[in-house]
């Protein structure tokens, strides 16, 4: 007997494949400027392990941008997460499912094991996801960097012109075709294996401040800081 949810699974698979194809064509037209090229060359193009840290609003573009290095990225166990994780997998990402509210511990352990499998393994998630608040870092990936002893690389993206989904909690941005996209890196953190609770909190605050400063600078460089006529 065929399970009643087979049509749903097939529909999700079809939608995610089509979405991946569309994003490949769409984002491939963008003019991408990389700020902090030495970090991109060393950690992204090189055989170096790392944990990427960014904000949720640029996650769709960054998923596409890093598809060729096949990073493991955490996505929430939700219906929206099903679609985004499926799309990411079709692009080349290794999705792992979990969040602070559901399945996070198991996903965390999988990421630790993944980072230990190869000298070039890379992992990432958005530090303010999956539900926000926007621009406020959670500790998950910081602890992953600490336990796995892998550098935590700050990454930010902005674009202009871009669609801004104003009704989403994170104000998701989607660069329009042929838009200017800025991808920015700063020097990574290399946390010790053991830190006190107070040290972890200080670390979290430093990362949060850095990412928000990077976002401001990225918006200025891309032109997004100017009025945006594409708000939805």
Structure characterization notes:
This protein is α/β, with parallel strands linked by helices. The protein has one domain. Helix content is 43%, strand content 21%. It has 7 helices and 7 strands; from the N terminus they run αβαβαβαβαβαββα. The protein has helices at 6-27, 37-45, 59-65, 79-91, 104-117, 140-148, 197-222; strands spanning 31-35, 50-54, 72-75, 94-97, 122-126, 152-164, 173-185. Strands 1-7-6-2-5-3-4 form a 7-stranded mixed β-sheet, sandwiched between helices. Strand 6 and strand 7 form a beta hairpin. Helix 1 (6-27) crosses helix 4 (79-91). The longest helix has 26 residues, at 197-222. The protein is globular, with a radius of gyration of 17 Å. The N and C termini lie far apart (44 Å). The model has no long low-confidence stretch (mean pLDDT 91).
Radius of gyration: 17 Å
For the termini, the CA-CA separation is 44 Å
SSE-based structural type:
alpha/beta
Gross geometry: globular
List SSEs in N-to-C order: HEHEHEHEHEHEEH
Give the tally of structural domains. 1
**Total strand count, please?**
7
Q: Count helical runs.
A: 7
Low-confidence stretches: none
Percent helix among the residues? Answer: 40-55%
- Spatial arrangement of strands, main beta sheet: 1-7-6-2-5-3-4
Q: Strands, helices and their partners?
A:
Elements: H1 6-27, E1 31-35, H2 37-45, E2 50-54, H3 59-65, E3 72-75, H4 79-91, E4 94-97, H5 104-117, E5 122-126, H6 140-148, E6 152-164, E7 173-185, H7 197-222
Parallel strand pairs: 1-7, 2-5, 2-6, 3-4, 3-5
Antiparallel strand pairs: 6-7
Helix pairs in contact: 1-4, 5-6
């Amino acid at each position: 007997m065929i399970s009643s949810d087979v049509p749903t699974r097939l529909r999700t698979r079809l939608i995610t494949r089509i979405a991946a194809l569309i994003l490949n064509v769409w984002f491939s037209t963008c003019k991408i400027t990389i700020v902090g090229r030495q970090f991109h060359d060393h950690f992204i193009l090189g055989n170096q392990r790392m944990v990427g840290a960014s904000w949720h609003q640029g996650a769709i573009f960054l998923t596409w941008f890093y598809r060729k290095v096949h990073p493991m990225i955490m996505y929430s166990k939700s219906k929206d997460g099903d679609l985004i994780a499926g799309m990411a997998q079709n692009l080349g990402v290794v999705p792992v499912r979990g969040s602070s509210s559901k399945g996070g511990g198991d996903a965390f352990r999988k990421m630790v094991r993944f980072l230990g499998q190869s000298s070039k393994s890379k992992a990432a998630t958005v530090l303010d996801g999956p539900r926000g608040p926007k621009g406020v870092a959670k500790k998950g990936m910081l602890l992953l960097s600490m336990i796995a002893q892998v550098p935590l690389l700050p990454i930010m993206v902005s674009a202009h012109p871009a669609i801004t989904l104003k009704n989403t909690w994170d104000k998701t941005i989607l660069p329009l075709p042929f838009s200017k996209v800025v991808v920015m890196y700063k020097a990574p953190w290399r946390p010790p294996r053991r830190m006190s609770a107070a040290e972890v909190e200080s670390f979290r605050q430093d990362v949060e401040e850095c990412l928000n400063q990077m976002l401001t600078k990225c918006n200025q460089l891309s032109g997004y800081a100017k009025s945006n006529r594409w708000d939805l």
